[in-house]
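Hi V.,

You were right to ask for the full record rather than a summary. Here it is.
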Amino acid sequence: MPRPKTLPNEEVLEAALNLMRKKGPEGLTFAALSAACGLSPSTLVQRFETKSGLIQAALLQAWDRLDRLTAELAAATPKTPAGAVALLVGLSGDYGGIKSYADDLLILREDLRDPILRARGAAWRDVLSAALEERFTRVPAASAGIGLMMAAQWQGALLWWSFDPRMPVTDFVKQSLERFITAFAAGRETHSS
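Predicted structure:
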């Protein structure tokens, strides 16, 4: 079968991300990507120049996808604490099972090593925290920073789930976040008494 002459970068970068998920970032080479997408290694080098450039481009595309999903969920969920839970449960669906979650942690390491990717993570944290915070604006005495606190609870729930993944991640996250909301509400009642 002949090699394709062209392939959009989006498809090439999706193939690169899939390779990183299967073989780790070290397994992503121009030769391996060539075999996965059909473009010649020299074409891939012309497009992305270096392996680090290829990894960065693939992960920037993944951040773009996460930004879009976050915006869609923020637009579709109610501006209530229950809507905050729904938004984070919706984001959790992408994590899949324990194997894919563990593999994605290897990829996260690449995000932490690269200042441009780290900045994307920080920007997403701010957008997500603001979207969560917005879901508490009608809650009397909601703590400033509740959005970031809830995002941190969510990330912690994902990590704790990964050590004992007997139930679907979305169920574990939902239970954890609902307990967080209940504890938050109980704390508000104590302070108002």
